[in-house]
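pinging the channel bc i need a second pair of eyes. not urgent but kinda urgent?? the chain im working w is below, pasted from the shared doc
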Amino acid sequence: MMVFRRWTPPLKSSPGRAAALSIALAAVCWPAQAQTSNAVQAADPATPATASAPLVLPPTGSVDALERPADIARAREIWQRANERVAEFPRGHIDLLRWESKNPGEAAPAPTGTQPAPLDLAQALRLSLRQRPELFTHADMNALEAGAVQVAYARHVRDVQRAWVDAVSARQSARQMSELWEATRTGSELGRRMVVAGNWSQAKLMREQLTEASAWQMNVNAQGEALSALERLAQLLGLWEANAVAQLGERLPASLPAVPTRPTPGAGLTDATLEAAVLRADPLLALQRVEAQRELGAVSADRRQVWTAAAEAALSAMPDPTTTATPPHIGNLSLLRDHPLARATRAEAGLLRAAGERRSMARQAWAQLQLRHASAQHAQAVVAQLQAALEQETLLRYNGMLQSSWELLASARERMQSLDTAVQARRDYWRAQADWQALLAGAEYAGPDTSSTAGASAAQAPAGH
């Protein structure tokens, strides 16, 4: 087959034309050379990277065998000196270790300068949209294009909300796991001194060291989750420099907002109007509904009834679908060659599936929001409060010499794990809230996440003593 190409006369070059082209190219390229784009800098391997903050890991415990007293006289001397040291403090061993962990000769330096304002969710969304020009609507868009942008925008808002919630909760959880590890270090150090004084066996000390090792691992895992969550948020915000990401972490709030007293679907919405609100929110579904109505209007009701009867007959005649892979069959060629009828049938079936999915999403998302709210309220008002009361009771019994230092430390560890459970439950609620808001804005519901209330606290440390 011969291909005909349009003939274009060659351009004639001249000194004047070459000079004009050079001036035009210089005018186009000069702004890019004078001011390099931030995106170009980020993508350029030659751009020097700012040094990220070194990763600080907690020191690991020691499992070296301790030197035991050689004789009874030496053991009594060590035991007497240790008890005299402990007696200087009102609460014994724990106060002693806390005092030794500080440097009494130096005070902590006061922070200099003003601290940046916390980065709230609204500010994070504005920062992220600067890097997403495709999420801006334009005056010349048709209804389909504007609807697609609206759905993509709702998805992006949901992603930023969830990333912000994850980053804040992960940092808070990391702080609590660090405190839990410090408590286990105290118990391990007390056990080491008990062995040196001859009051403990190596087996008891090893159990305390196993408790410390488990808490150390939980602490490191929590730090890793906090770093990953911060990096995911930084990616959505368009931050690429290491120091900018570190500053982002410092600007995050210390904790998530409190869970409201009761979950609400939204202004003017009730349980009876949830599905209707979700259907109205999807702009693409509205266009699909108009298209289906147009296709159905082009076919008579009698003709559609003929198709329905033929489909029911094919379904009745098909073999058992559990024993054979033979699909239903329609042999009426007049129906199959009726293109308006085929378009109307496909449009009606597609609209029914889409509407059913949206209604199901509405029920699931609202149910998950209520479940996550109840879980967060329970973790905060019941579990955490009980653990706090139990720790207080243990402290009173400890001051009355009815319980040991290790029982007090174990109670403190349990309380911190309960607090971490409450943080994870609050995080799950705000993630469910983001999913619900995105559904009301036109996005789809991705499905419930697996509850992570057993996140950092799932691997429970050994109870110790």
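so The CA atoms of residues 336 and 342 lie 7 Å apart. and The radius of gyration is 34 Å. — does that match what u expected or am i reading it wrong
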